[in-house]
Design a protein that fits this description.
Length: 661
């Protein structure tokens, strides 16, 4: 019965083109409620009730039954997908309201249709095991997200970014397809994920895993496969950015995890490879984020950073299996998988709040903002909540997943050999640096955007967003705090997922007492803060409160934008220390020797991605220049094109005549 309802919802998604523009978003809600209810029922049944996976026939595909297969890993991702899509769709209602005036009914319907199909395709990605159907639905996911990214298609730069994104997604598909084909041909197994077990049983898994990692890693955004991500997220509408960063890029992680379930030998170097790439991704991602001025681009680089943290946990988990250290394997996988959920929460919240700031001020440049806590106090509080969570600070969810990874490393020291200890020490150092830089970055972002005085007139007319847009804020905020205060409730189902990889997850019990102590300490801390604010409110109840302008750093009547810390000045020292990594360039006209009264000048800084420059921009520029040289043959005259054809035929004839071809 459930599968019939699920199919009905898919059919109903097409009817959105017939719905009045004012009611299209409600049609989306109707379809999503059905999809979420049915798929979540399956996921909950598998994750919390059943001890095994189950199959549901969906349809006949190319003469064979196409099955929906749900195990505990799939069930976890289904719940994450559904929650993120639900909050994103609710937020979209308020965010898209201004576009109703300049977008046609068809354009709005097409956007919402792609939003629905992004949801449907992501669910099928984690449900399909047959390789062909998986690749088809993977492509549908890429196409629907491409159309969502180019929603503002009147901007040429947005179209350019969208095409770049689509090309890289197709490159990823080529790697995944190649891996499936090689595994199927060399082992004679079926063309599916399950067929990989036959190949891996008799072959060294590293090469095929590397192909899969290249394909799935492009979607996830691991460095150096990340270049689409810092461009696509800012270009997309904020509800799409939150969904893409919150959950879509995690399907790259899902693909890697799914492949790992079939590999049972030669795991050490696979784990080490994942760990090294993840450490690089985390360190470079957060470093690039620090020097950004575009708040959405900054958040995009933090997505790369957090993909790195997830990868660190997975890499350590794989190494733990290889060197037979159960506590490292269990806590590494548990921390990495829990961080998938945690990142989906705080990153979608941050993109939604950043989108609200953009909606009210019409700028993403944090140098143009300031003092918004007075104009948008609720948005400021929720942005701060997301910032504290992403920084890994207690008592919020980001701390719990990183704590599990740290615990796995600490408890595994001196258990294995010297090389394993060295790997753990480097991993600990890298993760600690990533966490410290994240705190530094979000201190900058929150203070520049929300504190101080307005830097430009764009802030002056800003007001708080509509009440409906706060609904996803409260939903996500509740989950962030719930995981931070009661982590044990969430660790139990995570342990069931880890069991797929490790087999015995009893080691997770070692951290339960510590997590309980963290919960109690966090609750006491929150109660104390609440009492403090209550006493302060009582003390000030009968007093006259004077409100004055924010202190202007001893400048009276001057331009507030000139006499406050800017994002550039805040991060200047770091930019100097990491200049080879973040590639910050400064544009400033030097003063002349005879220039007694200096003329007006502007000081600008911008950073560029060294990996994108060296791996994509320079090679593509070389190819373009080479083709431009060949453009001399493009005369526009049909006589010349006929001549080229004749010359080609003569060359082929001569080569055939002398037996060269």
């Amino acid at each position: 019965m459930e599968i019939i309802i699920f199919k009905l919802a898919i059919i109903l998604s097409i009817l959105i083109f017939l719905i009045s523009r004012l009611y299209q978003i409600y049609w989306v809600y109707l379809v999503q409620i059905i999809i979420i209810a049915v798929s979540s029922l399956w996921a909950i049944q598998c994750l919390f009730i059943s001890d095994s996976s189950f199959e549901i026939p969906l349809m006949t595909f190319m003469g064979s039954p196409l099955l929906i297969v749900i195990d505990k890993l799939s069930a976890f991702f289904i719940l994450v997908i559904n929650f993120t899509m639900m909050t994103g769709s609710i937020y979209a209602k308020g965010y898209l309201k201004p576009y109703l005036e300049n977008k046609s009914k068809l354009e709005m319907a097409f956007h919402l249709f792609n939003l629905l199909w992004l949801h449907i395709s992501m669910l099928f990605v984690v449900m399909f095991r047959d390789a062909l159907s998986f690749l088809i639905i993977w492509e549908i996911m890429s196409l629907s997200s491409f159309f969502l990214v180019i929603f503002e298609n009147d901007k040429k730069e947005t179209i350019k970014i969208g095409i770049k994104y689509l090309i890289q997604m197709h490159i990823g598909v080529v790697f995944i397809l190649l891996a499936f084909i090689i595994a199927a041909v060399q082992s004679g197994s079926e063309f599916s994920f399950d067929g990989l077990s036959v190949y891996f049983a008799s072959h060294n898994p590293f090469f095929i895993f590397l192909l899969f990692f290249m394909g799935f890693g492009i979607k996830a955004g691991f460095i150096p496969l990340h270049s689409w991500l810092p461009h696509a997220h800012p270009a997309a509408p904020s509800h799409v950015s939150g969904i893409m960063s919150g959950v879509m890029i995690k399907l790259g992680i899902y693909g890697i995890l799914r492949v790992l379930t079939y590999i049972h030998h030669d795991l050490f170097y696979i784990g080490l490879f994942i760990l090294v790439i993840s450490l690089i991704s985390g360190l470079i991602g957060v470093s690039m984020a620090i020097v950004q001025h575009d708040v959405k681009k900054l958040l995009a680089y933090h997505s790369i950073e957090n993909i790195g943290i997830i990868g660190i946990g997975i890499g350590l988990g794989v190494i733990g299996i290889a060197v037979k250290i159960p506590i490292l394997a269990v806590l590494g996988f548990a921390g990495g998988i829990l961080h998938i959920l945690n990142h989906s929460l705080f990153k979608s919240l941050l993109f939604f709040t950043a989108g609200s700031v953009y909606k009210q001020t019409h700028t993403r440049n944090i140098e143009d903002l300031g003092g918004l806590i007075k104009k948008m106090p609720k948005t400021a509080i929720f942005f701060l909540l997301g910032a504290l969570a992403i920084s890994g600070l207690p008592p919020f969810n980001g701390f719990i997943s990183e704590f599990l990874i740290y615990s796995g490393m600490f408890k595994s020291l001196q258990v294995g050999d010297l090389f394993t200890d060295i790997v753990l020490l480097f991993s600990f150092t890298g993760l600690a640096i990533i966490g410290g830089l994240a705190v530094f970055c979000f201190t900058k972002v929150f203070s520049i955007i929300f504190l101080g005085n307005p830097r430009t007139e764009k802030v002056e007319h800003a007001t708080e967003i509509s009440s409906s847009m706060f609904i996803p804020y409260y939903m996500i905020g509740f989950m962030i705090i719930a995981i931070g205060l009661a982590p044990v409730i969430f660790i139990q189902p995570i342990g069931a997922i880890v069991n797929i990889f490790v087999g015995n997850t009893s080691a997770i019990e070692q951290v339960i007492p510590t997590l309980n102590n963290i919960s109690i300490s966090s609750a006491i801390f929150i109660v104390m803060i609440g009492i403090l604010f209550f006493l302060r409110a009582l003390q000030q109840k009968n007093q006259t409160i004077k409100q004055q302008a924010t202190w202007g750093c001893a400048y009276k009547g001057a331009n507030a934008g000139l006499h406050q810390y800017t994002a550039t000045s805040y991060a200047d020292n770091f930019g100097q220390l990491a200049k080879q990594l973040v590639n910050v360039k400064k544009d400033f006209k030097e003063f002349g020797k005879e220039e007694i009264f200096p003329e007006k000048r502007e000081f600008e800084t911008h950073s560029s991605d060294i990996f994108e420059n060296n791996l994509i921009t320079k090679p593509s520029d070389f190819v373009i220049k080479w083709f431009e040289k060949l453009a001399v043959f493009q005369t526009g005259k049909i006589q010349h094109y006929l001549l080229y054809s004749l010359v080609f035929l003569i060359v082929v004839f001569l080569l055939t005549f002398i037996n060269w071809i």
